Amino acid sequence: xxxxxxxxxxxxxxxxxxxxxxxxxxxxxxxxxxxxxxxxxxxxxxxxxxxxxxxxxxxxxxxxxxxxxxxxxxxxxxxxxxxxxxxxxxxxxxxxxxxxxxxxxxxxxxxxxxxxxxxxxxxxxxxxxxxxxxxxxxxxxxxxxxxxxxxxxxxxxxxxxxxxxxxxxxxxxxxxxxxxxxxxxxxxxxxxxxxxxxxxxxxxxxxxxxxxxxxxxxxxxxxxxxxxxxxxx
Amino acid sequence: xxxxxxxxxxxxxxxxxxxxxxxxxxxxxxxxxxxxxxxxxxxxxxxxxxxxxxxxxxxxxxxxxxxxxxxxxxxxxxxxxxxxxxxxxxxxxxxxxxxxxxxxxxxxxxxxxxxxxxxxxxxxxxxxxxxxxxxxxxxxxxxxxxxxxxxxxxxxxxxxxxxxxxxxxxxxxxxxxxxxxxxxxxxxxxxxxxxxxxxxxxxxxxxxxxxxxxxxxxxxxxxxxxxxxxxxx
Amino acid sequence: xxxxxxxxxxxxxxxxxxxxxxxxxxxxxxxxxxxxxxxxxxxxxxxxxxxxxxxxxxxxxxxxxxxxxxxxxxxxxxxxxxxxxxxxxxxxxxxxxxxxxxxxxxxxxxxxxxxxxxxxxxxxxxxxxxxxxxxxxxxxxxxxxxxxxxxxxxxxxxxxxxxxxxxxxxxxxxxxxxxxxxxxxxxxxxxxxxxxxxxxxxxxxxxxxxxxxxxxxxxxxxxxxxxxxxxxxxxxxxxxxxxxxxxxxxxxxxxxxxxxxxxxxxxxxxxxxxxxxxxxxxxxxxxxxxxxxxxxxxxxxxxxxxx
Lengths: 233, 233, 307
Known about the structure:
The structure holds 3 protein chains of 3 kinds.
Chain A: H1 2-10, H2 15-18, H3 22-36, H4 42-59, H5 64-70, H6 75-87, H7 91-112, H8 117-126, H9 131-160, H10 165-192, H11 209-232
Chain B: E1 5-13, E2 19-28, E3 33-37, H1 44-51, E4 58-63, E5 66-67, H2 73-79, E6 80-83, H3 87-90, H4 96-106, H5 111-124, H6 140-152, E7 158-162, H7 170-181, E8 186-190, H8 194-200, E9 203-208, E10 211-216, H9 218-225
Chain C: E1 13-15, H1 28-53, H2 58-71, E2 76-79, E3 82-84, H3 89-96, H4 98-116, H5 124-146, H6 152-177, H7 184-215, H8 229-251, H9 255-262, H10 282-305
Parallel strand pairs in C: 1-3
Antiparallel strand pairs in C: 2-3
Helix pairs in contact in C: 1-4, 1-5, 1-10, 2-4, 3-4, 3-5, 4-5, 5-6, 5-8, 6-7, 6-8, 8-9
């Protein structure tokens, strides 16, 4: 399953894994903005940014080829639009779509494959996102596999009942009811251990000098690359 | 010595009016281990949910001398810990240590103390090495032990376990028996597993259609009700 | 328009119109403006949901979000050799209420982007607005107005259809506004596909609600009583007009300039430097994008932190 692989990568050990999530999120956003706003010399800039990402991936000790392949998930959607743009006489845009969407996906993968999801969400919360929303996302992630496994069973049952529209609707209704019931059990388990309306976090990640240094370097690298290319080429 | 649990004439009806519990009288002495036996749907789990106030019926339920009601709910949930049948519903936090710390954090401990308590509880059940792991990495037996640790971390006087050996293979069952055998708390074990009940419990109570139909040792009840765990002879 | 499938299925074509826009498609003014609009919207909705529910409802919303993912695996035959699946915005709105449904869908959009590389990060504002805000709203409105009348089943069908249609059309419009090429024929086919998917979602939503009513009617919320047909018609017409208007404006050749002049829907203080312009001076634009994000950040801190 996709998210299991990602989860495994995110729990490895490397200097990049050890960085505070905030020191990875902010450079990611800057990288994405630098990429999104690039128009002139896009191929050169893309090549430079690609090299940066690959270097970081190697440093992070995650399987490079696998990550590069996984970023290709963006391509089916992108290639359709790129193809249409090409045929409509705008090859530059076609290239831009492919390069930008692939590199953006790769950059996100770099962060997600070096930061376990709960820690990433906590980092996003510390940067100001609403806590309620992030807790919902955390629980969604936790139970994604659990409910999907149940859905597998339901699917087999629906298919064995003829795979009709009605059978599928019935299967979904049962899955809904089961999910709802499990949510109730989770709530009971929370209450049984003293939950009083608010989740209390166990820890906040500490921001160290190494994190600050990384943040500065990783944020400036794409900016410097782009300025350099645009000024001197 | 005063009993740690005193239930007197407990009645409970479902919303549609059917009787779930029809007048239960029950006592648990300090340090005692009692098995709740009986067919599915006979009211064992419903009864257990009254002990920490997740359900409220007619009659008197006292835990450690305190009446189980809304005002006392939080205090009572520190004294009595419930381990539910479905470990996935109980381990709802992203990692083992997050989950086991949930109870202590709700009790108002600061994060450092909560983490210490959590690790101590994990040591007790032999799962300290799994502290950083995510729940889906664990086997059924490991999840069950972590769930017990989550309850132990709150330092309760009473443990209630609902069908703890379901999904466990024989080695895991043995591990569970030795863990539970080494805990000083009073215990209520809802189970269909006769060897398990016999290994841990000095007394047993037989539920039938919402009432207690008999009391005695595990082997006495097995004989009296022809009960080999799942089939009524 | 295929959303990316993360699970293998049988060998059938699957109709999918969850359009999660990746990064690299939207032009800077578009994604920046939508991030600026989307983030406060999410903050307000999240706070509202939190106030109504307290954090005890977090497991329910999280688990139902997982349900929506898992529901993708159940195939509904909608035509010869074609199957569809539930997208779920309307269903969630009818069972959890629209605010909770918005929060769940926002979480879903986030997980899709982070874990499945389906949808971009800078594009989150757009995707969240399309699916979690406008899609849910469009899905819920018919039910809100007609859910207690004899037209109830029609309302549920319409809600399901509208939630998918509106999200897809908005996404398409945003792409067109950003200058993504789409010749008329392709555009027509796309809108046609959206319409078919919308009808499928309407039918699937109705069928699932029906099945839920048979097993546990309490799952489905009752809308408040005393709604007028007229008000409902007007509200839905408004939503359709706005969406249609955006689509039309974005497809007309000088639509981009018109929009720039109008400065209504998507205008920002920074659009003065030229919405259609792809010229040099990226630093101001990037700076504008970042400044916009910074403003959003500030606003959200103010909204979200007041507990």
